[in-house]
């Protein structure tokens, strides 16, 4: 059973700008993310999140097929999810039932679920799926309204790689391998990008093409969104293992706290 979410009265209307993942994409997602779903890769993420939850409840925005939420629950953290794509949530539901890990269908900027949480988190660049600044601000506000006093909001997001753009060019490759070619094209005026993927489909030489739109944001911009939502930056690191964040970091994991 997939429950439909409700929007916060008096707030923005349900977000519609995010690309909605269809059934075909949802069905092959776990296979394509097998490496990122391995125990070795996920261990630092799960440890980081479990420590912040501190035995309390956790809410995952854009929980998808449960790549993080399912193993985090297996660590003893009660997890609830919000997911825009019914197809992604249907794949998760094959792994764990509704009573064990409730999932509400709705967007992460306005959908409200019952109760308070010690932790709200967003992994894997997912906040960039909200394609306007207003929507990203509402995502922070939605996290804040779900947090108990002293609770944390965690976001994992890449640092925009604009320093790799030569003058006059708009594309930056992020993966060039035998089975996959990935590159981002940037619209510097509207602060958006499109991730393009050419993925080898089988062993007959065919490639499948896909793309997704995102809105990139700098760490300082996210800090301002957090302030608007009444949250305070607690720490920022370069990865889930806690490496120091610096000028050469390709991504960040940021933690904002709701004041007591």
UniProtKB/TrEMBL annotation:
Lineage of origin: Bacteria, Bacillati, Actinomycetota, Actinomycetes, Kitasatosporales
Recorded superkingdom: Bacteria
One Pfam family, short name: Methyltransf_25
Disordered: region residues: 1-37
InterPro entries: Methyltransf_25, SAM-dependent_MTases_sf
Listed GO biological process terms: methylation
Protein species of origin: Streptomyces daqingensis
Domain (Methyltransferase): residue spans on this chain: 59-151
Biased composition (Basic and acidic residues): 21-36
Keyword Transferase among record annotations: yes
GO terms of molecular function: methyltransferase activity
Keywords from the UniProt entry: Methyltransferase, Transferase
Protein name: Methyltransferase
Range of residues in the leader sequence: none
């Amino acid at each position: 059973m997939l429950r439909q979410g409700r929007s916060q009265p008096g707030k923005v209307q349900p977000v519609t700008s995010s690309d909605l993942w269809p059934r075909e994409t949802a069905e092959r997602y776990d296979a394509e993310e097998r490496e990122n779903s391995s125990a070795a890769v996920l261990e630092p993420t799960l440890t980081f999140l479990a420590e912040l939850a501190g035995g309390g409840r956790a809410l995952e925005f854009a929980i998808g097929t449960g790549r993080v939420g399912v193993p985090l629950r297996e660590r003893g953290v009660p997890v609830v999810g919000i997911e825009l794509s019914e197809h992604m949530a249907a794949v998760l539901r094959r792994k764990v039932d509704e009573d064990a890990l409730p999932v509400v269908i709705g967007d992460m900027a306005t959908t409200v679920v019952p109760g308070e949480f010690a932790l709200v988190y967003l992994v894997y660049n997912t906040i960039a799926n909200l394609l306007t600044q207003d929507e990203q601000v509402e995502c922070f506000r939605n996290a804040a309204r779900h947090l108990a006093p002293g609770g944390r909001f965690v976001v994992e997001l890449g640092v925009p790689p604009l320093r790799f753009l030569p003058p006059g060019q708009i594309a930056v490759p992020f993966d060039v391998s035998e089975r996959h070619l990935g590159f981002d094209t940037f619209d510097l005026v509207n602060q958006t990008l499109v991730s393009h993927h050419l993925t080898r489909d089988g062993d007959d030489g065919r490639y499948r093409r896909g793309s997704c739109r995102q809105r990139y944001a700098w760490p300082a911009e996210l800090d301002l969104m957090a302030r608007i939502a009444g949250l305070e930056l607690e720490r920022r690191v370069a990865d889930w293992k806690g490496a120091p964040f610096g000028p050469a970091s390709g991504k960040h994991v940021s933690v904002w706290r709701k004041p007591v």
